[in-house]
Amino acid sequence: MAWNERDVNGRERGLIAENGFLKEPWSSPGPNISTAGVTSTQKAFEGKGALSYANILRSRNKFVDALAIYDSVLEKNSGCVEAHIGKGICLQMQNMGRPAFESFAEAIRLEPQNVCALTHCGILYKDEGRLVDAAESYQKALRADPSYKPAAECLAIVLTDLGTSLKLAGNTQEGIQKYYEALKIDPHYAPAYYNLGVVYSEMMQYDMALSCYEKAAMERPIYAEAYCNMGVIYKNRSDLESAIACYERCLAVSPNFEIAKNNMAIALTDLGTKVKLEGDINQGVAFYKKALYYNWHYADAMYNLGVAYGEMLKFDMAIVFYELAFYFNPHCAEACNNLGVIYKDRDNLDKAVECYQLALSIKPNFSQSLNNLGVVYTVQGKMDAAASMIEKAIIANPTYAEAYNNLGVLYRDAGNISMAITAYEQCLKIDPDSRNAGQNRLLAMNYINEGDDDKLFEAHRDWGRRFLRLYPLYNSWDNPKDPERPLVIGYISPDYFTHSVSYFIEAPLIYHDYGNYQVVVYSAVVKADAKTNRFREKVMKKGGVWRDIYGIDEKKVASMVRDDKIDILVELTGHTANNKLGTMACRPAPVQVTWIGYPNTTGLPTIDYRITDSLADPPGTKQKHVEELVRLPECFLCYTPSPEAGPVSPTPALSNGFITFGSFNNLAKITPKVLQVWARILCAVPNSRLVVKCKPFCCDSVRLKFLTTLEQLGLESLRVDLLPLILLNHGHMQAYSLMDIR
């Protein structure tokens, strides 16, 4: 933000004549008709009459005619000081500085103490840039007549200009001294106060600067630049309200002052961010929009509107403002990055990649975009490219905790669990409260630690204790104790869409006893689909309540649960993606349960029970849980097939002549022990084949590692078919027809 420094000159003051200041502007004079000598009318005036008439003509900008009369007077009386001064002024107004100076010099020779001639000589010196000579001339005038105000005012102007020249030459203290000398001569000269404000601002003596700007504005209430620079100081002090008030005063006196309008837009944008962070996002949006009123092409306001609309889940609006921000600021890599995030969340991965690459073309070491591009490549199964991007993000920003978390996700999806856990732990070293890394670490530990391993239980328990400290805990509930009142049961999950958990919760939701129990479903689905809509319709048709809670803070969700008087709250996610364990940590319901979505304890002491059965958790199991296990027979996993699965097809062995084993799963779940068992089975069944479908199999290095491991276990790679991710659910279902046994 530029300081508005003004190199003040004397032209604001007008011309000095023998009777003080005249009101003529310094602009070029209007039409001036020259005559061929002295007219008969002019000849009629002699002596004082001729001088008076010449002065009248001069006051009306008839400089040529006035000059002729002054010359006529001087022909008769070369010692007429008033005529020499009048002639000098006429020549000065016609930009004939040297002849004008000679006229004033002659007047001074005749009358050395003539303050008017001395003052006009000072003006001519100043116009030639001879500021020191100008100052000396004004000072001579003041020594001749200390009460002569025009000389004092002109001296203040030239001393101020001298101060600015000295300051620009690096002699700041001498410049300050000249400003104060100017104010000693003319205590009401606003530009001297203003320029002192500029100097003190540059010296970071902001209290002194404010005082000087305020005095400048007091002496000249229309001093727009002073108000503007006061606003800059308040803005830099984060006193945004005071800054905005100063800019408003500035624009009130100078509505088209572009610097002030731009500064107002900046202050309003910062104020919008401040109130948004304080929780009032709507007011924040209002300030951002007001900023655009003052500067309609201010990219930062547009960018922040994009951020705000994204937080409000108005992603179409967010896209519009990110696009505008990038249009008006083609160097705004952040806008490109955030567009990529939206497109990624909308499963438009190609567009997301395009946005991230554009951001990186602007900022090659932009760690967020490097990380985000790595995340998209991970989702696409392009593990080598993903690892390259995330490692570059870490090099660009070694303390970027989430990049380590995402590197862990990549290793997990590629089947390297030990390296995944190491990456998660590195993230937690940088950010001990990283929720993603903490929960991803627990999930990964299930793949390499046996269920009865105390290390696995202790990790979950320790996480739960630490996590619990981040949330307020309810210890009492005002649910009615009426025995005739139906129990109110809540189910909370982000997976009420085409997700593996949805196939196991569909039957319990549809066949729930809605007559004797009230059911409330809390849906944290990120992207609703046809299955979400079907669930919602069936629950509500049966008399249940459906609440969409995506984007709502978990503490607020807990408050909603209390308001709904939930008696039993069941969470269905555990430590998997988008879980609502933060809500469970608040204990908004007197009884809390975990079910379906996670194969182990949550570690949260606020969850009372874990629903399972005797097959998943045999009665004699040594595995520890913080929850009490409730073994409900034959209902832990209630699977509802997809309607796209179609009829059961004949086993392909009938036509192939060999048995095909298969698994469509995450590599993380295909542990070394699992591979050993598979290899033994296929080696024991002659001519049998194995088909495995997994997202990372589009990556050559992952395929090679997988096949090499099986060959080391005695299974030829020719007997193994590896399939990458199939995007459409119908195609995924059709692929099951390749297998006889899975």
> What is the helix tally?
33
Coarse shape? elongated
Largest sheet: 7 strands, parallel
Structural class label? alpha/beta
Strand content of the residues, in percent? 5-15%
What's the pLDDT, averaged over the residues? 90
DSSP, total strands: 12
Parts with pLDDT < 50 across at least 5 consecutive residues: 1-42
CATH architecture of one domain: Alpha Horseshoe
The level of helicity is: 55-70%
- Briefly, what CATH class of one domain? Mainly Alpha
Radius of gyration: 42 Å
For the largest beta sheet, what order do the strands appear in spatially? 5-4-3-6-7-8-9
CATH topology of one domain: Serine Threonine Protein Phosphatase 5, Tetratricopeptide repeat
CATH homologous superfamily caption of one domain:
Tetratricopeptide repeat domain
What gap, in angstroms, lies between the N and C termini? 67 Å
How would you characterize this protein structure?
This protein starts with 15 loop residues before the first strand and ends in a 7-residue tail after the last helix. Among the domains are: 196 residues, Tetratricopeptide repeat domain (Serine Threonine Protein Phosphatase 5, Tetratricopeptide repeat, Alpha Horseshoe); 145 residues, Rossmann fold, CATH 3.40.50.11380; 90 residues, Rossmann fold, CATH 3.40.50. 56% of the residues lie in helices and 7% in strands. The chain has 33 helices and twelve strands. Helix 27 links the parallel strand 4 and strand 5. The N terminus is likely disordered. The longest helix is centred in the N-terminal third of the chain and has 20 residues. With 742 residues, the protein is an alpha/beta fold. It holds the Pfam family TPR_1. Belongs to the glycosyltransferase 41 family. O-GlcNAc transferase subfamily. This is Probable UDP-N-acetylglucosamine--peptide N-acetylglucosaminyltransferase SPINDLY.
